Amino acid sequence: MVSFINIMYLCFANESKTFSKRTFLLANKISKRKNLNKNLIMTLNNKHNIKESYDVIIIGGGITGAGTARDCAMRGLSVLVVEKYDLANGATGRNHGLLHSGARYAVTDHESAAECITENMILRKIAAHCVEETDGLFITLPEDDLSFQSTFVEACGKAGIRADIISPEEARHIEPSVNPTLIGAVRVPDASVDPFHLTTSNILDACRHGADVLTYNEVVGMIIVNGMVEGVQLCDNHTGEVYEVRSRVVINAAGIWGMPILQMADIKLNMFPAKGTLLIMGHRINNMVINRCRKPANADILVPDDAVCVIGTTSDRVPIETVDDLKITPEEVDILIKEGEKLAPALATTRILRAYAGVRPLVAADNDPSGRSISRGIICIDHEKRDGLGGLITITGGKMMTYRLMAEEATNLACKKLGIDKPCETAVKPLPGSEGLDKNAKEWHLPKAYNAAKGRQGMRVNEIKNETLTDRALVCECEEVSVGEVKYAYENLNIHNLIDLRRRTRVGMGTCQSELCACRAAGVMCSMNKDPKKTLHDLGNFVNERWKGMRAVGWGSTLDEAHLAATVYQGLCGINQIMNKKESK
Amino acid sequence: MKEQGIQLKNISGNNLEQCLKCSICTVYCPVSAVSPEYPGPKHSGPDQERYRLKDTKFFDETLKMCLNCKRCEVACPSGVRIADIIQSARIEHSKKRPALRDVMLANTDFVGTMANIVAPVVNVTLGLKPVKAVLHGVMGVDKHRTFPAYSSQKFETWYKKFAAAKQDSFKHHVSYFHGCYVNYNYPQLGKDLVKVMNAIGYGVHLLEKEQCCGVALIANGLSKQATRQGNNNMRAIRKSYKEQNRMVLTTSSTCTFTMRDEYKHVLKIENEDVREGISLATRYLYRLVESGKVKLAFRKDFKIRTAYHSACHMEKMGWVVYSTELMKMIPGLELIMLDSQCCGIAGTYGFKKENYERSQKIGAGLFDQIKSLNPDCVSTDCETCKWQIEMSTGYDVINPISILADAIDVEETMRLNNV
Amino acid sequence: MKYDVVIIGGGLSALTAGITLASNGKRVCMVAAGQNSLHFSSGSFDFLGYDADGNAVTNPIEAIKTLPTIHPYRIIGEENIGSLVTSAQALLSDAGVETKGEIAQNHYRITPIGTIKPTWLTIEGYATAASLTETRWKKADLINIQGFLDFPIEFLVDNLRDTGTTCTIRNINTEALTQARKSPTEMRATNVAKYLDSKTDLMDFANAINAIDSDAEVVLVPAVLGLNNSAQAEELKALVKKPIEFIATMPPSVSGMRTSTLLKRKFMALGGTILVSDTAVSGVFENNRLVSIATSQLPDEVLRADQFILASGSFLSHGLKSDYEKVYEPVLGVDVEAVANRVEWTKENVYDAQPYMEFGVKTDAQFHALKEGVAIENLYAAGSILCGNNDIKLASKEGVAMLTALQVANIIKEK
Questions:
Q1: What are the chain C neighbours of B75 within 8 Å (beta carbons)?
Q2: Beta strands in C26-127 (DSSP E)
Q3: Structural domain of residue B342, as residue ranges?
Q4: C244 FRET partner, CA 20 to 30 A, in A386, A571, B4, C414?
Q5: Whether residue B264 sits in one domain with residue B177
């Protein structure tokens, strides 16, 4: 196994440490916590350093796959997670980041609502470092029917969701950004959750329990012997190499991409990709989640996430062929702004950093090929029962925030197949980062980047080197990402390129969307991976990836920002020469 | 009326959202050049503001190192009010109580009043080594600092005794916000203004009640007191401008800037209705001359070579042009523009012993330039720049109004204006 | 206030026009709206690095022919280019910005990541390459200032290796640099320059370079010296035993700030006035003439002038603005050449030619800005605000800025 920890950094060698009392104390603290963070590392795997066979192969590195991997690994199974791109690349990383209280579904879908509130309370405990307990408001506007409010509150009560009616005055007081014309408000225990770090934490815990993870390795075929799935055929997306890995059970947790996976096993499952588009605003307008108190519709949730807030979503069926390259239309942007403005008027005059879209995997009931009867609930399919194909489980439907429950159901089924009888512990054991976390005890005397990083990595922040001046230097000034955090992520969190780095930290997610930070981050990465050609190409890709999200909202300051970034990266640095050269090859 | 259309405007607190992260502001920050502990204007301002909106604990006490010189805002090509973001954050989040020294330095008028009464004693005392040692050690006022001398007669006293009576006899009238410096330390500047204005037929009146503009209070974290005084000043200015129809003139760029811009942006005092009623005297004069309403005549024998220093707040207001264009009208005056940069004093900042060295370092380039140009005098519109430059270079620093008062041929000017 | 000429803008174009006119005895006032885009400069002045198809240009004058007729160089006219180019270089030199290079043939600058781009003039002391594929040295020492993140040194080493130079990274630290490094955010090129701004600190820096034991023929140093003039860069050259050459860093650019400062000083020494923190907000037109403009800081003042120049830059300088529906020129509302449909402003691949970069103010053949289709007699547009010039694709930013400004100044001079 290749160890990346002991690489020397030429650029940063000879850095004299600044010994201060503070650093000393910190070092002490770190050593005390050391055992907690032991083995918290995702190794950069490839076909050469994994096993030949596993108990379970999990397809998909989204939150469902990550949660399932954790559960399986904690129950003692040997696990391999395979993901064709990066962790949280699909729908997991492309939603609101809302930890639903369940209130949104209370009236229309009691079961989902009840699941949500249960999982909501669990995640607050096990993933405390990924959750910000903001609470949420369901507001009634003059154009809405106020009588819906009582139906809503009653339904919440039935689902076990605390829902307090408050006066419009109080709503304006506790959330000053809310539309001041509101005529009613209900306070519910909504919260915001960071899906990237939630996924990372689950994978890290799975790895601690022995799981292996392969990113950028795509399933291209199923190994089926005598009506049993016995493994998968994989393609290494970097090298193009195709190889096989065996397992006793395969769990398909690939979201919408699970449909083509099933086709490889000649199984037909009616899934419909529903595209949801969202906009990221330049800063926090609101500090509480704001929803509309009516039946769920377009663009009616505004969620504060870290230093920004997110308005969404639209909902449109799209062809399955488009899910890897979703296009955002001006009409969607239009709806989001117009409707979002009704939640918080400031949205109309706030800069929009970027737009993005994800796909919900909607599953049609088996007896309805038209797809009209769509279920939004959790679907766990034992293909042995449904299709007569052993060793294959599909876990889909559901929501990002019910991932743990989905994982539990899938794992229960896998355990049953493997004859293992061990209870699920994922609801009670905290995730790495939340272990020993006291959310109120932030070390404000330390550099701000420390606390910003703690908001992302949780207690794992103490693994981040910050003793030397070079490690404390900020790579990303908007999001307070230090050199130390970049190094930590590179060494521990399975990073192949800058886009992966962004998901593990927040490099490039701030106002400037990569203007200086990307080049700095690339420099730090390069000092470790010693592959300047690839890293420079990654930098070019990163700048392009940021542009794609900015382009959909490319007017005003966002267009000016893009012009400045182009002036720096292309005009000054000429990175376009490198990118265009590669493409023509 | 609500405008039609989507996202026509980008409005955010102090234009936070307009920041393109171009980092140009950091180039012109006088503090980050000498204090690595300071995170710089971009980071202290728009960057961290986004995090402060998430959690106020992201506020950082290093923000108090900001001089509030506004050089960052002057440099910003996108109109972000960077220093306002920083000052507002300090007012909103700072938990630290100002030290006695800061309270004293901030209360320029109270200290001034006390000092005037015993001016000769104070001047001697403030100059004495043991006293300076006490100020340095106990109070934290740097021992290298020469305190501006306190005048034995306040400007207000002089005005009431010698000037007030005849002011009503003029055809036109203005009010004068003299500020603490003119009142306690340098009444001559006030006298010079009265001389010039009277020569062109304008009577000069004091405001009903003038209090310190509060700039030092804001800088030292005493925003409540500053707001109180600001409201009082606005009341007096409103009366002058709205009821008596008298423009309020000043001779201090900082007082002017504070009352016109900081009151609204930092203290949230409504001043829109009278903002245009507050003007620096040089601006008012320039505009009278330029519009042909007033003519100036100058002494034939007046000759001076002066280097003009653009004070930070003058630069921020964009009013350097008035003082320099006015001076350019004087035939015997040769004007050299110094590179526009902060002199390092920044009000009371440079008086604090922890800042002394830094303050001198900030101004070093400017001092060198002055010495190499070797002018007859330096001119500037700011009184604290005057202290700093005089102390650091030995050159006399004169307000453009005083230069004008010296250059003007009073009798001929009166004749030209039918006074 | 009344001037002979009022210039809206404070960048390379505005300063070029301002200096030319002020030195011809005109009273000139510049409304600058903050600092300019020279702060993102490379240390070189590009004229025409690539043709419309993206091929590197050897002879820029020849290549002008291939540009579409809407391009500012075509409007200036080939016959005028030669003399304007000479004036531009002389103007820079006169202000204290010494450059090397000639218009007859592009030379090659080295970018912060080590790629090579064709260019017109390069500030003395900056490294250049022999061709697009060849650098000038076999062996070089590359100075790495410890902890300075805006100099992507690994990319430089790699790209220079591909073009014939073996670089050895030499880590340098001095006391002043350690001080600078204490700030987690402010170790930028321009701040490093401030920390090296004293004789002793420069001497330490030079000594650290001299202490390197190597057989390299040249020392490549990040461009972090001399914010206000070139004296320090020259002093370092004198102090270091080996030949040294500077390589541009990521912004803010030290050479750009220096160029900006020197040009401003020159302009002011000629009696020019700069309203540095003021922004022009509107204008009053009468009979196809611009009578006056108003500014944000002087709301009850009008700036009157016989002639006006609009040189307020492109999107990043806010000379052009856009909103959800349109692209417009925010001060005077003059006509802008732009596609109406927002979706067509941009292309999906950031490295494709982006249509919005060609948007800009429409003019007639004398660079009179058009308003509602009619040329305004005394209003000229110059620099990046002009339409028809994608300066990033063509590598033509500084050339267009200076030449259009000179052309406009020449027309005004005659009046």
A1: 34-35
A2: 28-31, 44-45, 99-100, 107-110, 116-119, 121-123
A3: 304-410
A4: A571
A5: yes
Q: Is A174 touching C (CB cutoff 8 A)? A: no
Q: Which long-range contacts (CB under 8 A, 24 or more apart) does B386-389 make?
A: B387/B146, B387/B148, B387/B345, B388/B343, B388/B344, B388/B345, B388/B350, B388/B359, B388/B363, B389/B309, B389/B343, B389/B363
Domains C2-101+258-413 and C127-247 share a fold: no
CB contact under 8 A, C117 and A472: no
pLDDT at C341: 94
Q: Which chain C residues are closer than 8 Å to A470 by Cβ?
A: 146-147, 181
Looking at CATH, the fold of the domain delimited by C127-247 is given as: Rossmann fold (3.40.50)
CB contact, 8 Å: C162 with chain A? no
Residue B82 belongs to some domain of the structure = yes
Please tell me which residue, B117 or B239, carries the higher pLDDT value: B239
Cβ of A567 and C392 within 8 Å? yes
- Strand spans (E) along B178-290: 202-206, 247-250, 278-280
Residue B298 inside a domain? The answer is no
Question: What angle, 0 to 180 degrees and rounded to 10, lies between the N-to-C axes of helices A517-529 and C153-162?
Answer: 70
pLDDT confidence of residue B129: 62
CATH code, domain carrying B67: 1.10.1060.10
Last residue of a domain, one of B236, B256, B290: B290
**First-to-last CA distance in chain C?**
20
Number of domains in chain B: 4
Chain C: list its partners (3+ Cβ pairs within 8 Å). A, B
Q: What predicted TM-score, i.e. pTM, was given to this entire model? A: 0.92
CB contact under 8 A, A571 and C316: no
User: Look-up: residue for tokens 């709301």?
Assistant: C299
Domain range annotation of chain C: 2-101+258-413, 127-247
Give yes or no: residues B260 and B352 share one domain. Answer: no
| Cβ distance of C250 and A519 shorter than 8 Å | yes
> What residues of chain A score a pLDDT lower than 50?
1-34, 584-585
Contacts of C391 in chain A (CB under 8 A): 571
Q: Whose CA is closest to B171, among B243, B246, B237, B274?
A: B246
Distance CA A427, CA A126 (A): 7
Nearest CA in chain B to A447: B60
Sign of dihedral through CA atoms B25, B26, B32, B33?
negative
A22 interface with B at CB cutoff 8 Å: no
List pLDDT tens digits, range B251-298.
999 999 999 999 998 899 999 999 999 999 999 999 999 999 999 999
What is the predicted pLDDT for the residue at B78? Answer: 95
Q: Identify whether the C-beta of residue C17 lies closer than 8 Å to the C-beta of residue C31.
A: no
pLDDT at residue A467, as a whole number: 87
Same domain, B221 and B345: no
Residues 28-67, chain A: which have Cβ within 8 Å of B?
none
What are B55-113's pLDDT values in tens digits? 888 888 888 888 888 999 999 999 999 999 998 898 888 777 667 667 666 666 655 55
Domains along the sequence of chain A with CATH: 21-35+442-584 (no CATH), 47-91+196-270+366-418 (3.50.50.60), 130-190+272-356 (3.30.9.10)
| Closest chain A CA to residue B9 | A349
- Whether residue A564 and residue C392 make contact (CB cut-off 8 A), yes or no, is no
Q: What is the pLDDT of residues C106-138, one digit of tens each?
A: 999 999 999 999 999 999 999 999 999 999 999
- Pair (B79, B124) in one structural domain: no
Residues of B in contact with A552 (CB under 8 A): none
A205 Cβ under 8 Å from any chain B Cβ? no
Q: Chain B residues contacting A, CB < 8 Å?
A: 6-7, 9-12, 16-23, 42-43, 46-51, 53-54, 57-58, 60, 78
CATH superfamily of the C2-101+258-413 domain: FAD/NAD(P)-binding domain (3.50.50.60)
Query: Cα(A327)–Cα(A549) distance, rounded to whole angstroms?
Result: 10
Are A481 and A514 within 8 A, CB to CB?
no
